[in-house]
Design brief:
The protein is an alpha/beta fold. Helices cover 53% and strands 19% of the residues. It is rod-shaped and about 90 Å long. The termini are far apart.
Length: 130
């Protein structure tokens, strides 16, 4: 009788320890997910006319920094939209900084288009020549 009671107490303690352990792991995982969540952004790149040296310093270099963070999994780039007054296009894949550096700039700044693109995404970051 006494040994059966001891076995039940041991079983209850073991089940309690296992439940506490699994609960702790679950809570720890949830905390990590929310605390260390990778921030995400949408990039909007203005392709209106820009001299090549300004394009490199004001668009390509900042893009390369963001791209490196994307590669290092420190940042998630949701999408990239390129625009000017002549139109806009969304990139199907995340282009490399070399691909962005090779883009031709054309047209004029379209503030209306820029504002409408900004409204579509609250996490938008705009890269453009000043």
């Amino acid at each position: 009788m006494r040994s059966v009671l001891n076995h039940r107490l041991i079983n209850i303690r073991l089940i309690g320890i296992v439940l506490i352990g699994w609960s702790g792991l679950l809570i720890f995982g949830l905390v990590l997910t929310y605390v260390l969540a990778t921030p995400s952004i949408t990039l909007i790149i203005d392709r209106s006319y820009c001299p090549l040296d300004q394009w490199q310093t004001q668009v390509v270099i900042p893009y390369a920094d963001l791209y490196q963070k994307y590669e290092d999994k420190e940042l998630k780039i949701e999408s990239i939209t390129l625009f000017s007054d002549l139109g806009q296009e969304s990139s199907q894949k995340i282009p490399s900084p070399q691909e962005i550096a090779k883009l031709n700039t054309y047209g004029k700044l379209s503030t209306n288009r820029q504002k409408s693109l900004e409204k579509l995404s609250p996490t938008a970051k705009i890269l453009r020549c000043q």
